[in-house]
């Protein structure tokens, strides 16, 4: 996919029209219409801020999960409660990722057209978090399997 000269990806509607800093339309509008446009821009900015918060919370959840994975081999920590905590954290992380993706998809609009750089940045950030999360989940499977294999060898 090629980027437009402005650095944005091509979208059918102008992304500037959904943010507060947008230029007024060259066509005259009455004051009631202007009020609804600013309300729409405010709502979109709030939605964008919500998405930022969700992606940030997901990033924090990934870091928490990573810390739990690191503690898998520790004799004092490895127990059924750790497994339960891993499961709970993994489930919450998956829910956060889905929610963040759904909210981003809702504010980004149709797939074929220009995307605002801030929304694009959030998509990239979410994708990076998902890759780290997937890596940590695979690591936990390997470590837990290795630990069980090692324990069976000792018994």
UniProtKB/TrEMBL annotation:
Gene Ontology BP annotations: negative regulation of signal transduction
Region (Disordered), start-end ranges: 1-42
Biased composition, class Basic and acidic residues, residue ranges: 27-37
Highest taxon listed in the record's lineage: Eukaryota
Keyword Transport among UniProt keywords: no
Keywords carried by this UniProt record: Signal transduction inhibitor
Record carries keyword Cell membrane: no
Family classification: Belongs to the RGS7BP/RGS9BP family.
PANTHER family: R-SEVEN BINDING PROTEIN (R7BP) HOMOLOG (PTHR21029)
Protein name: R7BP protein
């Amino acid at each position: 996919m090629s980027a437009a000269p402005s650095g944005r990806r091509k979208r059918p509607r102008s992304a500037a029209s959904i943010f507060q800093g947008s230029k007024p339309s060259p066509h005259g509008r009455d004051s009631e219409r202007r009020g609804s446009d600013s309300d729409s821009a405010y709502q979109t900015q709030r939605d964008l801020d919500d998405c930022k918060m969700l992606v940030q919370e997901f990033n924090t959840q990934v870091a928490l999960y990573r810390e739990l994975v690191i503690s898998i081999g520790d004799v004092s920590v490895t127990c059924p409660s750790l497994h339960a905590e891993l499961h709970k954290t993994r489930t919450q992380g998956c829910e956060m990722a889905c929610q963040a993706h759904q909210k981003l998809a809702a504010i980004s609009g149709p797939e074929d057209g220009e995307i605002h750089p801030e929304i694009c940045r959030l998509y990239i950030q979410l994708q990076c978090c998902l890759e780290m999360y997937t890596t940590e989940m695979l690591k936990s499977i390997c470590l837990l399997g290795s630990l069980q294999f090692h324990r069976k060898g000792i018994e």
